[in-house]
Design goal:
Elements lengths: L2 H7 L6 H9 L15 H18 L9 H13 L7 H8 L1 H6 L5 E3 L2 H9 L7 E6 L2 E7 L11 E5 L2 E2 H9 L10 H19 L4 E7 L5 E7 L41 E5 L6 E6 L7 H14 L4 E5 L8 H8 L7 E2 L1 E6 L13 H9 L2 E3 L5 E3 L5 E2 L10 E6 L6 H12 L3 E5 L10 E2 L4 E3 L6 E3 L3 E5 L14 E2 L4 H5 L4 H13 L6
Helix pairs in contact: 1-9, 2-9, 8-9, 11-13
Length: 511
């Protein structure tokens, strides 16, 4: 599958696509009733707690949106809570609040009971896989019986709604850092059908107008399909028929087991050009990075690699120390990553409903110091990191990014692009903010009636890079835009650009 398509479906560091899956489905359970109605008083109390908690403790609630605008969306949303609602309807109603806050680490999630219920009761599936590219929604897979609906067909409208209208409503459900749209589009491309049901209900059929390559339009009625049940029976083993007069042979030696590739990260030497190595980092969410980096950069030095590709597409982030450690192999001078990492001081008034109590206690009292303003500052602020001397890489660096590059996977290219003159960014704007985000510790607030969960990060992070924070991600030095034809042909235009630059550089620096 094309890398652009696969990144739309891959689970990110903060489990964004799994979250969308849980957010959007409904079904039935003997222990949990998704149709249970919560009274106006109950949902208003839950909403009031949510609003109070965000206004009190969110460190960056006004980072990109003015207090007046935040108050406006809170008040406007509260007016809609005027009738009894199911959990799903409640989440759907308050969801746009988080888009206004413009923090990709702040979102609303289903209750634990709802999530368990979805796992046991798989909903019907949207019968098409689609991809938004070049301002068109195109079919990438058809799971209906209509063979005339071919891959590449454009969808013009759904149930009388134009596609721009549908996408705009979907984007209003997805929070992202600042004014970023690439992150929203990446999530939608991987979960279009799920978002559609979440927005417009659980009707069994829907009406679609499609347009073929000649511009001709036609109307179709489609049905949501049941997910296929996995077969529990193993296929029968072939029975060998004994052959007469055969001479017994020596049993074949067992084949050596081929090691499975590490899905978290791997290093490969390019078959096309032995001077190029590709470091594919799919996540920063585990503890094994230190040893892996050391082994990888030792191999890079032994192989005399001149050009290093670091693929961060669809890397949802994870541990900050994993990204900071990787920087040490690519920077030549001591560096400071975090200019400011601050949080609201003191124990929150809603502590009873706020999770990760032990971690938050340690963060407030041991990992941070109190400031005269009443806030607390994490001790990572201003910390000087030293570059690796033994295996530090001195060649050209090519960073591949897209809207799925988020959190720590945005912090990394932001620093490298700024401080490594031999590095360039190729692809699309990262999903995370170039100048920082709100994260480090992001506990969940559990609302007492609906049991819905709200993620509220503890720290506001500002990176030590020059310039004004304009609410966008890391912008590529070489922007790459895909056509649907490139997607269909499984072309990786990002890596093609790398080889163009390698060929033209002739060993010279890139900047």
């Amino acid at each position: 599958m094309n890398r652009l398509l696969s990144t739309a479906y891959r689970t990110t560091g903060r489990c964004l696509l799994f979250t969308a899956y849980c957010l959007l489905f409904t079904a039935c359970s003997s222990q949990f009733d998704p149709k249970k109605l919560y009274s106006v008083e109950q949902i208003r109390q839950d909403y009031g707690l949510m609003r109070h908690s965000l206004e009190e403790a969110h460190p960056g609630i006004y980072r990109y949106t003015s207090p007046d605008s935040i108050k406006w969306i809170f008040d406007k949303t509260e007016q809609k809570l005027d009738h009894s609602m199911t959990e799903r309807e409640f989440r759907r109603t308050v969801n746009p609040v988080f888009s206004y806050i413009r923090c990709g680490h702040t979102d609303i999630y289903p209750s634990q009971q709802y999530t368990k219920y979805v796992k046991k009761n798989k909903p019907k599936e949207f019968p098409l896989s689609v991809f938004w590219v070049n301002n068109q929604l195109r079919v990438t897979q058809n799971r209906t019986d209509d063979s005339t609906l071919t891959v590449g067909t454009e969808i013009v409208s759904l149930d009388g709604r134009t596609i721009p209208q549908v996408l705009e409503e979907m984007r209003s459900l997805i929070p992202s850092d600042g004014y970023n749209q690439t992150f929203k589009n990446t999530v939608i491309n991987g979960n279009f059908g799920s978002f559609y049901r979440y927005l417009y209900g659980n009707n069994d059929t829907f009406n679609v107008i499609v347009k073929d390559s000649t511009g001709k339009q036609r109307a179709l009625t489609m049905t949501f399909s049941k997910p296929p049940k996995p077969s529990k029976k193993s296929p029968p083993k072939p029975v060998s028929t004994p052959q007469p007069n055969t001479v017994p042979s020596t049993p074949p030696k067992p084949r050596p087991k081929t090691p499975k590739p590490d899905k978290r990260r791997n290093l490969t030497i390019s078959e096309k050009d032995s001077s190029v190595a590709i470091l594919d980092i799919n996540t920063f969410r585990d503890n094994g990075h230190t040893r892996f980096y050391r082994k990888s950069f030792r191999k890079i030095k032994e192989k005399n690699i001149k050009h290093l590709v670091i693929d961060l597409r669809a890397n949802g982030g994870g541990r900050s120390d994993a990204s900071v450690n990787l920087m040490s192999y690519l920077l030549d001078s001591p560096y400071v990553v975090y200019d400011s990492v601050e949080a609201i001081g003191g124990r929150p008034s809603f502590n009873k409903y706020y999770g990760s109590k032990l971690i938050r206690f340690a963060a407030r009292n041991f990992w941070s110091k109190k400031l005269p303003s009443g806030k607390i500052r994490n001790r990572a602020t201003g910390k000087v990191h030293k570059p690796k001397r033994k295996y530090g890489f001195k060649g050209n660096v090519y960073l591949l990014t897209n809207g799925g590059s988020f959190s720590a996977a945005t912090i990394f290219p932001s620093m490298i692009q700024q401080y490594n003159p031999r590095a360039v960014v190729i692809g699309r704007e990262t999903g995370g903010g170039k100048h920082g985000c709100n994260a480090f510790i992001s506990p969940y607030l559990t609302l007492p009636h609906t049991m819905v969960k709200v993620r509220i990060p503890m720290y506001k992070i500002v990176l030590r890079i020059p310039g004004r924070d304009e609410g966008h991600g890391v912008m590529p030095d070489y922007p790459i835009e895909y056509t649907f034809d490139a997607v269909r042909k499984n072309q990786d235009l990002d890596i093609q650009k790398v080889y163009e630059l390698v060929k033209s550089s002739s060993g010279l620096t890139l900047k």
